[in-house]
Amino acid sequence: MLKGAPLGIVSKGNREESSPPNLTTELRQGHRPMFMTGPEIKENYDPNYWDKHGMESNDDLWARKLYEAKKGSEHNTQDAPHEWSNQTPANRTLEDSVREEGVRHPIFLGEFSRTRNDESKPEVHNGHHRVAIASQIDPNMLIPVEHSP
Predict the structure, then answer these.
(1) Domains in the chain: how many in total?
(2) Which of 66, 106, 127, 134 is the most buried (most CB within 10 A)?
(3) What percentage of the chain carries pLDDT values higher than 90?
(4) If residue 68 lies in a helix (H) or strand (E), which one and from where to where?
């Protein structure tokens, strides 16, 4: 979270009319936005190859991540990333958190896809659940992202 910035602007804001006309072209030219919407992430980045179950398609992976974010578990919280602690009430889901606060922690986006084919895109390295649920709650919700160098 940016210090001093209103919560709504940083984590629950929406892309303004002044957004680039073609984000895919902008990304290919090396531009790296600090915020993207869930649909923009899904369109321009493949899910992490190692997160897929067998021959699961990208669409199936996103559907599974959405289901898991709605269902809730100790692994789907944004209260303490990578510290699955008792700070999150058992009945609070990631959906509840994102609906109330937006996405608080950046999604890490990588440059190289492990699928290694001509149609490969860079990958979402973490944050699949947050992207999936934010996309459903509000397709225009801005999500903080960090790009690998």
Answers:
(1) 1
(2) 134
(3) 40
(4) helix 58-71
